[in-house]
Design brief:
- This protein has 175 residues and is mostly helical.
- It has one domain.
- 76% of the residues lie in helices and 5% in strands.
- The chain is built from five helices and two strands; from the N terminus they run H-E-H-H-H-E-H.
- It has a two-stranded parallel sheet with strand order 1-2.
- Helix 4 packs across helix 5.
């Protein structure tokens, strides 16, 4: 919110100057670029697949914990105190292992997400600079930080197209 207020103040302060100088401004929607570009879709698919694999394992381990807990509850009056204690120790170990696995999976997901998105963002920023030069734009703003922008200044489609060309080149398509 603070960024939006500062951006609004900058635009109000320098807006007249910018328009008097006929400075060309563009807008890009990074979320759209990520979700619509080939590389962005690949990254999102990889992250989703990773999350699903980890979730399957978490569900399996959670079921084991629930089953063991249920077994302890149903056999409490039947088993000896030693056997119950052994099962309780197993339950405690499985619960700790589950918590550790969830924490590790979250850490790994965050690291993977940060790594892939940071790389994508660096490439996107380079492409935005190239699109700005090609269109003689002096300023490109992040659409997420704006209250309103006319669709005519949105260069997201051009950025997506350029990123797709780079992605295809990496894969050896269209050489």
């Amino acid at each position: 919110m603070k960024k939006k207020i500062i951006l609004a103040l900058v635009i109000l302060t320098f807006g007249g100057f910018l328009f008097a100088q006929k400075i060309r401004v563009g807008v890009v929607d990074p979320d759209r670029v990520l979700s619509e570009s080939k590389e962005g879709r690949k990254i999102l698919s990889e992250l989703k697949s990773f999350h699903q694999r980890k979730q399957v394992e978490i569900n399996r381990r959670t079921k084991e914990v629930e089953d063991l807990n249920q077994k302890i509850q149903t056999q409490q009056g039947i088993l000896s105190q030693t056997a119950l204690q052994k099962m309780a120790d197993q339950l405690d170990k499985k619960q700790k292992d589950l918590k550790r696995y969830i924490a590790d999976a979250n850490d790994e997901m965050n690291r993977l997400k940060q790594e892939k998105l940071a790389s994508f963002q660096r490439e996107m920023v380079n492409v935005i600079g190239k699109v700005a030069k090609a269109k003689a734009l002096l300023v490109i703003l992040d659409k997420r930080q704006l209250i309103y922008s006319d669709p005519i200044v949105d260069v997201s489609t051009e950025v997506i197209g350029e990123l797709d060309k780079i992605f295809d080149k990496k894969l050896g398509i269209g050489k």
